[in-house]
Design goal:
- Strands 2, 4, 5, 6, 9, 10 and 11 form a seven-stranded mixed β-sheet that branches.
- The chain has strands at about 5, 10-15, 20-25, 35-40, 50-55, 60-65, 70-75, 80-85, 95-100, 115, 120-125.
- A hairpin with a 4-residue loop joins β7 (about 70-75) and β8.
- The protein is mostly beta strands and about 130 residues long.
- Helix content is about 0%, strand content about 50%.
């Protein structure tokens, strides 16, 4: 079973950058195409939304259109981490950020993800 642990959240001022990291542990993330690892975010009273994903083996990335150019997802194969770099933070980025793993290549839906971390809170002040 894959286990995921997020870190890097906190309170930051608008305009700054932040790196979230997700440490994956458990069985190696292998398979024909490897798992897809993603970041989602959720605010109180709202649904969990897809932000970005990366295929573990191939490194292919996907982003929600609204964050393209400002967020970068990457994987560190040696450290088994999935990082999310967020530039030019705005209060609209305030959310609980979750790391997740799916067996489906390029998965974007919450129901496609099997493994979830506990989340890390990001709060951006103006």
């Amino acid at each position: 079973q894959v286990q995921l642990l997020e870190s890097g959240g906190g309170s930051v001022q608008a305009g700054r950058s932040l790196r979230l990291s997700c440490a994956a542990s458990g069985p190696p993330l292998t398979g024909d195409s490897g798992h897809t690892l993603a970041w989602f975010r959720q605010t109180p009273g709202n649904i969990r939304e897809f932000v970005a994903a990366v295929n573990w083996n191939l490194g292919t990335t996907w982003y929600v259109d609204s964050v393209k150019g400002r967020l970068t997802i990457s994987r560190n194969y040696d450290k088994k981490t999935i990082d999310l770099d967020i530039e030019n933070l705005s209060p609209e980025d305030t959310a609980n950020y979750f790391c997740a793993a799916a067996e489906t290549y390029g998965a974007r839906r919450v129901d496609q993800y099997i493994y979830w971390g506990q989340g890390t809170q990001v709060s951006v002040s103006s």
